[in-house]
Write a structure and sequence with these properties.
The complex is a heterodimer of chains A (286) and B (201). With 286 residues, chain A is α/β, with parallel strands linked by helices. Chain A has one domain: Thiamin diphosphate (ThDP)-binding fold, Pyr/PP domains (Rossmann fold, 3-Layer(aba) Sandwich), CATH 3.40.50. Chain A is 37% helix and 13% strand. Chain A has a 7-stranded mixed β-sheet, sandwiched between helices. The N and C termini of chain B lie far apart (49 Å). Chain B is globular and about 50 Å long. Chain B has 201 residues and is α/β, with parallel strands linked by helices. In chain B, helix 5 links the parallel strand 5 and strand 6. The chains are: A alpha/beta (286), B alpha/beta (201). Chains A and B meet through loops of A and helix 3 of B.
Chain lengths: 286, 201
C-alpha cells in the first residue's frame, strides 16, 4: 500500500462510520504496532461471530496485532471457524476452497512478486486443523516441498468444531466428541516435525495464552518466509464448545496443559533462518 | 426490439427478481443512458434524475469505496462534486465504505452494505437513492436486492458502462457529467421554488 493511500475523500469524513475514521486515524497500517500496543490502537477485527471463550478469537486478535506489515499483507483462509471471522477483518483476505489454501497462496505470492517486484508482499495462510492437517495436507506439504515463500498458520482447536464436533487429525488419541462417540483411534499428527522435515525454514508452536511469544513466532515466520522459504506456525487453542469446558477457563486450561507437558511450545529453525533472524533481531538471542 | 419490453421499475418485485440483463435490457452506448430499461439520451436521463431526486420525500446518496477513499488522482475532485450534487438536491448521505459482510448486522443508521442494502433503506424510509463509486459487481447485486425487496427508486451514476438493474443509469459519469447534473438539479429546484411562490400568493 502506498503511504497516504488510506485517506477519506474530503467532505466525507463526517459521514464515515466511526470505525473507519478510527482505522485511518489510529489504525496499525504502517504504524509498527504490536501485541504490547493492544488497546492503544484501532484493531483490524471489529467484531466476530465465534463462540464465547473461543481461543481462536484471541489468537486472531494476537495474530492481526503481530503482522509486521499489515498494509502489505494478504491473508488466505479456508473453511472453518476462523473463516467465519475473517470476512470482517479490515485486511485483504481471500477465502479458498476447503483445503486448497496453500495452493492458492503459492500462486498469489508468485503473482504479487511479478506485479510488485520492488515491494515485499506477505502472503499468510491461516486455516484450521481440518484444512491444514487433513483435507488440505497434500496442498500444504507440496507448498513446503516447492519452497514457496509463504507462511502457514494453523489454528489448532483439535476438532471440526462448527459442524457438530468431528475428530480431526489433530484431536488427541482417545478423544470423544459429539460426532466421534467411539473415541479417536490414532494420536495427534506431529505437524511441526513434518513441517521441519518437509523443508520449512522456520517452525513454531505456541498458544494464545502467551501473546508475546505468539507475536515473536509469527513475526519470525513471516520475516523468514520473505527471504528464505516456507514457514509454519501452529497455534494451540482447544475448542471450549466441543471439549466442553467453561468459556472463562480457556486461558487457565492452556497454561495448565503447557505446565503438564500436554502442550509443548516448539521452535525449529534452520541455520540459514537463524542467521537471518540474528541479523534482523540485532545479533543476540531473541 | 422485442415485442415484450421489460421495465425496470421500483419494487418490491419479490424474492429473487431476475437480472434486468436476463430480461433483455441492454447497456447503453456512449452518450446514452437507461431510464427504466429503455435507452435514452444522456440529457434526457439527467433531467429525469433531477426530477426524481427533487420529487422524492427522502432521497439518499450511497457513495461507495471508489469515491469515499482518495485512492488516486481525481477522486477528491469528484467527491467534492458529488457532495455538492447531494447538497443541491437536498439528499442525505449514507456511505458504503467497503463490502465486508458484517455480522450480526450493520448499523443501518450510519452505513449501507451491498449484501443487505434493503435494511438501510427500510430503516431510513428511503424512497430514492443514488449509487456512485460502487464497484460494478457489487452495485449490480445491491440494485437487484433493492428492486426485489423495497419500493426505493434507484439511480446509478456509473463511471463505467452503466447498470441495467438501476431504474435510471448513467454511464461514463465523470466530473463534467456530474457538474452538469448539479446545474440541472439547481435550475429545476429554482423553477419549483418559483412555482410554489406563485401558487402560494
Amino acid at each position: 500500500m502506498k503511504p497516504g493511500l488510506f485517506k477519506i475523500s474530503p467532505g466525507f469524513e463526517e459521514v464515515m462510520p466511526a470505525e473507519y475514521r478510527e482505522l485511518v486515524e489510529h489504525g496499525p497500517y504502517g504504524a509498527g504496532m504490536g501485541v504490547a500496543d493492544l488497546g492503544a490502537f484501532k484493531e483490524l477485527l471489529e467484531e466476530h461471530p465465534l463462540c464465547a471463550g473461543c481461543g481462536l478469537a484471541l489468537s486472531l486478535r494476537l495474530f492481526l496485532a503481530s503482522l509486521p506489515a499489515p498494509q502489505d499483507t494478504v491473508i488466505v483462509g479456508s473453511t472453518g471457524c476462523s473463516s467465519l471471522a475473517f470476512p470482517q477483518v479490515a485486511l485483504q483476505n481471500i477465502h479458498s476452497l476447503f483445503g486448497n489454501q496453500n495452493a492458492l497462496a503459492s500462486g498469489l505470492k508468485r503473482a504479487l512478486s511479478l506485479r510488485f517486484p520492488d515491494k515485499v508482499k506477505d502472503v499468510v495462510v491461516i486455516a484450521g486443523d481440518g484444512a491444514t492437517a487433513d483435507i488440505g495436507l497434500d496442498m500444504v506439504m507440496h507448498s513446503w516441498f516447492r519452497q514457496e515463500n509463504i507462511t502457514t498458520v494453523m489454528l489448532d482447536n483439535e476438532a471440526y468444531a462448527n459442524t457438530g464436533g468431528q475428530e480431526s487429525g489433530m484431536s488427541p488419541q482417545g478423544t470423544v466428541l459429539y460426532m466421534a462417540p467411539k473415541g479417536k483411534k490414532f494420536p495427534k499428527i506431529p505437524l511441526p516435525e513434518i513441517a521441519r522435515e518437509a523443508g520449512c525454514a522456520y517452525v513454531g508452536a505456541c498458544s494464545p495464552a502467551q501473546g508475546k511469544r505468539l507475536e515473536r513466532m509469527l513475526r519470525r515466520a513471516i520475516l523468514v518466509a520473505r527471504e528464505i522459504g516456507p514457514t509454519y506456525v501452529q497455534i494451540f487453542a482447544p475448542c471450549p464448545t466441543n471439549y466442553k469446558f467453561k468459556p472463562n477457563e480457556t486461558l487457565t486450561r492452556l497454561k495448565l496443559l503447557e505446565k503438564e507437558g500436554v502442550f509443548q511450545p516448539k521452535e525449529y529453525i534452520t541455520r540459514e533462518a537463524q542467521d537471518l533472524l540474528n541479523k534482523l533481531e540485532g545479533g543476540g538471542k531473541p | 426490439m422485442t415485442a415484450f419490453q421489460y421495465q425496470v421499475l421500483a419494487g418490491p418485485e419479490g424474492y429473487l427478481p431476475p437480472a434486468a440483463a436476463m430480461m433483455g435490457v441492454e447497456l447503453p452506448d456512449k452518450g446514452e443512458a437507461l431510464i427504466e430499461g429503455q435507452v435514452v439520451s444522456d440529457e434526457e436521463a439527467l433531467h429525469k434524475i433531477a426530477e426524481k431526486l427533487l420529487g422524492a420525500e427522502n432521497p439518499f446518496f450511497f457513495p461507495g469505496p471508489l469515491l469515499l477513499w482518495a485512492w488516486r488522482d481525481g477522486v477528491e475532485e469528484k467527491a467534492r462534486a458529488i457532495k455538492d450534487l447531494a447538497e443541491t438536491a437536498g439528499a442525505k448521505i449514507i456511505p458504503m465504505p467497503d463490502y465486508r459482510p458484517k455480522y450480526p448486522m450493520i448499523n443501518p443508521d450510519v452505513e449501507i452494505n451491498p449484501n443487505h442494502p434493503n435494511l438501510t433503506i427500510w430503516h431510513n424510509n428511503i424512497d430514492a437513492c443514488v449509487f456512485v463509486g460502487v464497484h460494478c459487481h457489487y452495485a449490480n447485486m445491491a440494485l437487484k436486492i433493492i428492486r426485489g425487496g423495497t419500493d426505493c427508486y434507484t439511480i446509478a451514476l456509473c463511471a463505467e458502462a452503466g447498470h441495467e438493474d438501476a431504474m435510471i443509469s448513467l454511464r461514463d459519469a465523470g466530473l463534467e457529467k456530474i457538474k452538469r447534473l448539479t446545474t440541472i438539479v439547481g435550475d429545476k429546484k429554482r423553477q419549483l421554488a418559483g412555482r410554489e411562490a406563485i401558487c402560494s400568493r
